[in-house]
Amino acid sequence: QQSNVTSSGAIILAIISLEAFAGMWINAFMVCVLCIGWVKKKTLNSNEKILLLLSCSRISFLCFSWIYSFLSIVYLDYLHVPITLQLLASFQTFFNYSNLWISACLCVFYCIKIANFRNSFFIYLKVKIDRIVPWLLLGSGVFALSIGIVTYDISEILKSNNLNFTCLGHFWETSIRMDKHFLSSFFLLCFGYAASFMAVIFSAVSLLFSLWRHKCKMQTNSMKDLSMEAHIRAMKSILSFLVMYSINFACLVLSIIYIMMNEITMTHLISIYLYAYPGVHSLILIFSNPKLEKALLKILSCVKCE
After folding, report:
1. According to Swiss-Prot or TrEMBL, what is its membrane topology (predicted)?
2. What pTM, to 2 d.p., does this model score?
3. 200 contacts: CB under 8 Å, gap ≥ 6
C-alpha cells in the first residue's frame, strides 16, 4: 500500500518520533533504576511505587501514541480497518489517563508528605499516607480503565456514523443524532481531565504556600542557608511541574477542539508538546530525586570516559 506523506507531515512525524523515543528511554531508565533498587532492598517506598507506575504508564502512552501518529500521518487507511482505530484509541486513552492521574497522585503525595498544616484531617492523612497510596494508584488504574472502555465505545459510535478521530469536521451536525450515552461518555472524558487538573492545582498551591510560609519562618529565625536552599529548590520543582501540567491540560483541551474542527495540522502541532511532556517532566523528577540523579550522572560519566 502506498504511503502519502507531505513535507510538513514528515517534519512533524520526525519531531514526534524524536520526542517519543527520547521520552521512552528516559522513563525506561527510571524503571530500570527503581527495579534494581527493588530487587536489592526487597521493598519499595510509596514515592518509588508512584514513580515506577508513572514511568511504565508513560512508556506505554508514548508507544501507542507514536503508533497512532505514524498511522495517521503515513498510513491513514490502516485506521479505517475494523477494530484498529478502536483498540489504538482505547489503549492510548487508558495510558494517557493513567499518566495524568498518577502524576496527580504524585503531587498529592508530595503535598501531604512535605506540607505542614495543623488541620487534624491533614495530620491524619500524613500519618496514613503510606497506606493510602496503593488505594490511590488502584483507583487511578480503575478509572483509567473505565475511560479506555468508554473511548472504545465512543470510537465505535463514531465509526457507525461514518466518522473517525482523524475526520470529525461535521461532528456538531451529527452529534444531534448521537444518543445520550455518547454525550454522557464524552462528559466523563472531559471530567477525567478536569478532576486530575484540579487535584494537581490544589495540591501544588497548598504545598507552595506551606513551603513559602516555612521559608519565611526560617528567614526570621536566621536558620541555616542549606535548609533554606532545599526549600527553595523544592518550591522551584513544584512550580515547574504546575506550569508544565497546566500547559499540558490546555494542550489536551485544544487538541479536542481542533479534532472537532477537523484541523489535523494544528492537532499534530499540539501533539508535539504532548509528546515532550512525559520525557521533560520525568527528567525533572530524576534531578529532584538524589537516587535517580546519582545513577544518571554515573551513567553519563561512564559514557563520557569511554
Report:
1. Multi-pass membrane protein
2. 0.83
3. 103, 104, 107, 241, 242, 245
